[in-house]
Amino acid sequence: MGVLRWRSLLDSQVSDISSQPISKLDLEILTALRLAVYQLRWLSRIPARAAINESVELVKRARKRSAAPFVNAVLRKLSGGVSSSIDAPPPAINGASAETLAASSAHPLWLVERWTHAYGLEAAIQICRHNQSVPGTAIRLRHPAAEDQLRGEGVELDPGAFLASARRVRNGDITRTSAFRAGLCVIQDEASQLIAALVGRGARMLDCCAAPGGKTLAIADHNLNADIVAVELHPHRARLLRRLVRAHDPFTEAAASRISVVAANALDLPFVASFDRILADVPCSGTGTLSRNPEIKWRLVPKDLPDLQVRQISILRSALHQVGAGGRLLYSTCSLEREENEDVVESALAEGSPFRLVDCGIELERLQQQGELIWSNVSSLPRGPYLRTLPGVHPCDGFFAAILKKI
Fold it and tell me: What's this model's pTM, rounded to 2 decimal places?
């Protein structure tokens, strides 16, 4: 994960020493160099000689034996002056401009420029700093007994930042506890929990892009008497979702039967009856989750955004056809990019649409009054009529949400 977070900075350090341009290096060789440089510059428990030797051996095992002397020479030059007993702290993330911020925080320049333009340089600095940190673990308590049981099993918890049902894991492995295995709690980022809470109450509900199922379970926990349909495109993921529902609904025998998992395409939903609450948490670029998924920033390119937008608009329009009179649809992504968020919603609300936007700020105040939302600075969450969380600015992943009501 460290190599993925700091890849461009690692490449820069290799490039300064290498006699060959890194663009000419085979991927196996470059990967071995990145691993060793990260160990040399960031980690203290691995002696320099061990880091160098392991990467040389990796190159040999990758059938690049002729490159072993080159890798050895580059790494020995880089190891000069590095103490194996003292942590080399990550570089300071500077933000005098988008260019210096991108370079110092190991982010593609095009992404940093977008965030600087959309949210301001100070927010962009906070986003990049958050992305380069190891994210904490947030959980959602599903049963009153969960917290005491977790503490009894050695897990130290702090209160959640956003939601009354959330906790932050200060110490301990939540996955090894009987409370987690019994489904009394689930691992879920607090912004994701907030999205599920904003879906609201209903009798017949649809999650049209449901896997892996965290929001589906949260919706079910908020609506104990509702019939819920969870749609997933890929049959193998639908099977995993069914297994999750069965494993995490131990409280009553009827609980799991309330959630019907359907393998279907959200672009062509196979339902005749309408729903009074729908969640369309659509596939997106994931730029709000880079602290957990740093590989995204190296894979994503600008041309991906229009392609994603086309699919997102199609899913949203398909889902809107399933909303009953007076019903609501919550559209959400974990993207920071306007093309996937405001632009998609505005496209769906073209002239003649029977839908109108519901102000997310009003809904957030309602959640606060009900005691579900405990974040004191509620006014920092809306951006116009939308919900917008920013990593680093808020203590969570970056999410966007819009609520559309059928009139």
Answer: 0.93
